[in-house]
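Protein Record: Sequence and Backbone Structure Tokens
======================================================
Scope: a single protein chain, as residues and as a discrete description of its fold.
Tokens: labelled as protein backbone structure tokens, with as many entries as the chain has residues.
Position: the record begins directly beneath this header, with no further notes in between.
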Amino acid sequence: MTARARDRGDGLEPDELRRAGGTVAVLKGGRSLERQVSLRSGARVEDALERLGHEVVGIDVGHDLVARLREAAPDVAFVALHGRDGEDGIVQELLEVLGIPYTASGVSACMRCSDKVVAKHAMRDAGLPTPDFYAFTETAFKELGAGDALGAIEERLRFPIVVKPADQGSALGIRFAASAADVPAAIVAAFSYSEKVLLERHVHGRELAVSILGDEPLPIVEAVPREEDFYDFAARYTIGRTAFVCPAELGDELTARAQKLALDVFRLLGCRGFARVDLMLEEGTNELYVLESNVIPGLTETSLLPQAAEAAGISFDELIGRIVELAAVEPVPG
């Protein structure tokens, strides 16, 4: 593949991918709270890569990662890790040190996207719509008296307020505070997942996901939880708990607006290869708000990226092949 084609995000046809072969190390598992989801993503990726004719080395990421990578000497590392150490740039930094091309975003983009507060500040500074928010560390509450400011925060954001850890995915640790009495417990729960907590204005409406492959947005997926009030961890990964509509029934104008916004976020945060941008479509106003960008979205049976790809006529095997072809390694400093 030429450098120009790679920049465009063009992928190879399935038969070309099979001929390409090559060894791919699939990094999965790890030690984050999303370990089980990562193992499921990794298993599906491995099966697809084998069907595409690649030699596959599955690596459950742990203390021997560097040694195992050196032993395997892969042509590409497929990062199927979710959460800490997988999406925050740490593994990506190691891969760059070892000179191994890898899938998805580079170090700096991973760092920006994994911290919801950093990402939201970047979006706000760029004029991209994201729900109003405040964020504090545990130290701010313990040593700076941030708890005394909660009344002012609650007044500005208005109830209900969404309280979430700043650096967790899969909706882990998210609580809805319907009143001031609910806020302290929600904050304590969020701090059990992260050292920094985000308090965010709740946007009532439809939950949309726009996946990007290469530099092109895929059809939008709407997630409609059947039993939960929002798209939480159980709704994401339990078959039958959520209804998915893809393409989402939005109309041409709104679809184009959502896809453009997602692509703007993708580019602003420096993402590459593929990612998923989560949006809320506010009821009554039809305004779009960006919640977050996921640099390594799930690839399980219930994940949204594969559904979006299928709606675009891209099979799961083709999707994985395209992602491998988009892999690149950034220059190692020094």
